[in-house]
């Protein structure tokens, strides 16, 4: 597959890295030669210096043969124009990064497709969705709902209060148990557990369950004493903070602390129809935090553009007694450090955006992809086609690659956990957990075929 990316910023470079790992034919275009320096030697990609909207440059990059064209420069108009030109030159699919929420209205999708833009992506909106979902459950690090909660993946940090520690999983996760353990992060290493493995204090454990058993999972992981989130403080009045403010449940009280006075005025305009309170000040100021009721706050979210500031602010909030902390960490070099400091949930816009773009590359019917950067893994929702390999044998006989496991499936809108004897049927939405593997290698199991 040939992919052309314009914009060697955070999202573009991260996406190029993913594609080079998958040995895709990838071209990265940017007008700034310094941004492209050494990228072609670090990753297996071709780089081109030039304007993303130059017809000459796009032709040099062989856009006419591109299966996917991605516009992810910081300039929304440039991304959209580049996609329109690329489509006219012959690119099969295009996706543009935007920062205008109005464009995401569902009724505008045919309008943009007619222009030659197949998909629009707004990383701040995607990050806000993750943050809001996380705030609804104070005791989880990460949550992902499939089919409106028919299946739910929960990332949970295990403490001494967990009831299932130090016992072989074969004794805990039998075929009738309403949960599966799909991955464990321990001491910097990811483990795809087997029946003889045990869970330990300090593990970050990913469970797959169905919505009705979430309280059960909460109980045996020892999280019932965690207070539900009612009061939230956000440090940093970014675009992501605005989207969180506009989508937060009504029962939550929100305060946004922003040190730029002009930005505070703008925030008040943008959040006029909400009950959010905007405070001019520095979110790292202990006196200010105490004055604003940090002792009665269940969640602290750090969304400044500085990863170090966000990490330190979350550490401070935890020291002051806040249970739920979320940090925006855009520098991937700091993600491992932030996780080792046990600061709470880590949000990275570029990995979220790259997951959504990556989904467009897959030929099989894939309705959702999520990158779990903490465990260096991906979760994808594949739909089993009629006659596909995945439907031919029970799960235990499919010969799935090492590091790949099935978390569950959705059939007729009902979540079902999978065991070795499960027979997947055509039309099932199957949750595939893939550690350090190319998701494209799993496509062959789900695409229609009559010969195996």
TrEMBL record:
The keyword DNA-binding does not apply. It holds the Pfam family TrkA_C. InterPro entries: K_uptake_TrkA (IPR006036), NAD(P)-bd_dom_sf (IPR036291), RCK_C (IPR006037), RCK_C_sf (IPR036721), RCK_N (IPR003148), Trk_Ktr_HKT_K-transport (IPR050721). Residues 141-223, 367-448 form the RCK C-terminal domain. Residues 1-121, 229-347 form the RCK N-terminal domain. Keywords: Ion transport, NAD, Potassium, Potassium transport, Transport. It comes from the Bacteria. This is Trk system potassium uptake protein TrkA. It comes from Xylanibacter brevis. The lineage of its organism: Bacteria, Pseudomonadati, Bacteroidota, Bacteroidia, Bacteroidales.
